[in-house]
Amino acid sequence: MTHHHAFTRIGVIGAGAWGTALANVAARAGHSVDLWARDAHHVAAIARDRVNAKKLPGIALDAKVSPASDHAGIAAADLILLVVPTQSLRGVAQRFAPILKPGAPVVVCAKGIEQGTDLFVSDIIAQTMPGRQPAVLSGPSFAHDVARGLPTAVTIAASDAALAEQIGAALATPSFRLYHTDDLRGVEIGGAAKNVLAIACGIAAGRGLGASAGAALVARGFAELSRFGRAFGARGETLMGLSGLGDLVLTCGSIQSRNFALGVALGEGMPLARASGGKLAEGAFTASAILDLARKRHVEMPISQAVDAVLAGRLDIGGAIDTLLARPLRGEG
Ligand SMILES: NC(=O)c1ccc[n+]([C@@H]2O[C@H](COP(=O)([O-])OP(=O)(O)OC[C@H]3O[C@@H](n4cnc5c(N)ncnc54)[C@H](O)[C@@H]3O)[C@@H](O)[C@H]2O)c1
Ligand SMILES: O=P(O)(O)OC[C@H](O)CO
Fold first, then answer.
1. Nearest protein CA to atom 17 of ligand 1, as residue
2. Residues 10-69: pLDDT tens digits?
3. Considering only CA atoms, which of 125, 131, 119 is closest in space to residue 82?
4. Would you call 296 a catalytic residue per the annotation?
5. Ligand 1 centre and the CA of 324: distance in Å?
6. Which of 37, 122, 148, 188 is the most exposed place for a label (fewest CB within 10 A)?
7. Nearest CA to 77 among 19, 11, 25?
8. Is the separation of the CB atoms in 10 and 32 below 8 Å?
9. CB 152 within 8 Å of CB 141
C-alpha cells in the first residue's frame, strides 16, 4: 500500500560536496534541512562561514540549512538523504538505523558497489535498515553545477513508484528536475558502472589518444554497462536514461569529474598512489566489485576489466590499451 508522505523536514547525512549541494536544493524546494557531518570542527566551520569551504567552496549555504554533528535534526526528519561514499554507507546506515523517524524513507545518493559483499546501494540499506523503503537518486549532476542553480535533471527511483514520485516532487526546484521510476536496480547500476568507465575515458584522454578513441570508449562502455545492467534485471530504457547513458556522457567528457580526472592523471603517467589528488573517485572502489559480479553472471566487460587491472597494478597503461585493441573482432551488440 502506498502512503502519502508529507515531507517538511529533510535530513542530509554527509556534508561532502554532494550532500551540501543537495541540502541547498532541498532548502530551495522549501524545506527545513538538517545537514549532518561527523566532524564537529568541520560543522563549526560551516556554521560560522555559512559555506562548506572544504568540500564546496564558493557556494553560500541556504539560510534554511542547519549544519550539526549531533543526531537530533536527523532523528526529526521525515525524509533522509544518505550522501556518504558507497564504502562508508553500511557503517553510517547502521549508526542511524535506530534513531530515524519510523516510516521516513531513505534516499541513497551514492554511486557505487560495496567491496567485499558486492552489494548494490539499495541492498546495503535493506540489510542495515530492515523495513525501511530505500530510494536511489542518480544521474548527470556535478555538485557545483547543482549548487549554482544550473539546470540539472536526475532520476529518483524506488520500487514503489508512488514513493519515487512523491520524493521527486518534494525535491524539485525550477533548476533541478527529477524523473521518477520504479526501476531501482537500473538506476543504481547506471550510477555505479559509469564511474569505472569514466576512468577509462580519462586514461585515453590523458594518454592523448584523441576524440575518436574517446567516443569509441563511450559507445563500447555503454554496451558493457547495458549488458551488465540487463543481466541484473535493469530495464533498457533506464540504462539509456539519465542514470546510465546520461551520466556516462557527462562523466566521460568532463575534467570536472573526479573519476575522469583520476584517469587523466594515470594516462599522463602519474603513479597510482597520487593520481586521485586526494579526491574521492568512486570508480576506483567499484571496479573490482563490478567485475566480480560480471564474472559470476558471465558478462563481458573488457573496458572495466582493463581499468580494474590498472588500478590493481596488474597492467600498465600501455598494456591496458594494447589489450583492448587486440581483442578479437566481433559483432557490435
Ligand atoms: N560530487 C558530485 O558532484 C556528486 C554528484 C552525484 C553523486 N555523487 C556521489 O555522492 C557520494 C558522495 O560524494 P561527494 O562528492 O559528496 O564526496 P566528498 O568527498 O565531497 O564527501 C564525502 C563526505 O562523506 C564523509 N564521510 C565519509 N565516510 C564517512 C563516514 N563513515 N561517516 C560520516 N561521514 C563520512 C566525508 O567526511 C565527506 O565529507 C559519492 O558516492 C558520489 O559518487 C557525487
Ligand atoms: O566527480 P565524479 O566523477 O564523482 O562525478 C560526479 C557525478 O557522479 C556526476 O554525475
1. 16
2. 999 999 999 999 999 999 999 999 999 999 999 999 999 999 999 999 999 999 999 999
3. 125
4. no
5. 32
6. 148
7. 11
8. yes
9. yes
From 12, 13, 18, the mutation candidate for ligand 1 (largest count of ligand atoms within 8 A of CB) is 18
* Range 212-240 average pLDDT: 97
- Tell which atom from ligand 2 comes closest to the C-alpha of 259: 3
Q: Please report which ligand is nearest the Cα atom of 110.
A: 1
| Cα–Cα distance measured from residue 73 to residue 100, given in angstroms and rounded to the nearest whole number | 10
Cα-Cα end-to-end distance for the chain: 40
Report the alpha-carbon distance of residue 297 to residue 310 in Å, rounded: 23
Give residue for cell 540504462: 239
289 near 283, Cβ under 8 Å? no
Burial class of residue 157 (count of CB atoms within 10 Å of its CB; 0-12, 13-18, 19+): buried
pLDDT band at 1 (very low <50, low <70, confident <90, very high): very low
pLDDT band at 3 (very low <50, low <70, confident <90, very high): low
Copy the grid coordinates of residue 79.
Answer: 525524509
Per-residue model confidence (pLDDT) at position 2 = 53
Helix, strand, coil share of the chain (percent; to 5) = 50, 15, 35
Q: How far is the CA of 161 from the centre of ligand 2 (A)?
A: 26
pLDDT digits (tens, 9 = 90+) for 161-179: 999 999 999 999 999 999 9
Q: What does the radius of gyration of the chain's CA atoms come to, in whole angstroms?
A: 19
CA distances from 306 to 43, 201, 321 (A): 40, 12, 8
Q: How much is the pLDDT for 161?
A: 97
Using CA atoms, how far residue 280 sits from 84, 91, 175, 190, 260, in Å, is: 11, 17, 26, 18, 11
Please count the other Cβ atoms lying within 10 Å of the Cβ belonging to residue 41. Answer: 9
Q: Read off the C-alpha cell for 303.
A: 573496458
247 lines ligand 2 (CB under 6 A): yes
